[in-house]
């Protein structure tokens, strides 16, 4: 779903820039959107029982009009751009995989291990069942390493 939204946003920026150039106005610059939280896990297709969420947490360097269009496109698909999603804590080791790369929009997904570490550290009670399931299925060595580095007591999830 997000790659479709990113493609539509990219096309919108291209269209807007054509009109802005014609009028001699500044054009929109390329932007990067990093998807965080539950939405990143859903988009990655993680094999866990994930609760569907309407909120989409992102960090992005887009301009206000581009953000408004992104929000509109998400809303048209029953999703909401979280106004404080950019404040989500993520480990400094987080990596981002490209989901869409267009002319003006690059959409990246935060890696699952980092998202799960963030959830375990910042909202353990809320994410208890998700983390219990993940640990029961066999957590990745990277998740275990990051958990240790950030002082997460994994015993609370067993």
> Helix- and strand-based class?
alpha/beta
- Name the poorly predicted regions: none
Biggest sheet: strands side by side, in what order? Answer: 3-2-1-5-4
Number of strands: 5
Fraction of residues in helix: 40-55%
Description:
There is one protein chain. This protein is α/β, with parallel strands linked by helices and 158 residues long. The chain has a domain at 2-111. The chain has helices at residues 2-22, 37-44, 64-75, 112-122, 128-138, 141-149, and strands at 31-36, 55-60, 80-81, 96-101, 105-110. The protein has a 5-stranded mixed beta sheet with strand order 3-2-1-5-4. Helix 1 packs across helix 3. The radius of gyration is 18 Å and the shape is elongated.
Provide a compact summary of the structure:
Strand 2, helix 3 and strand 3 form a beta-alpha-beta unit.
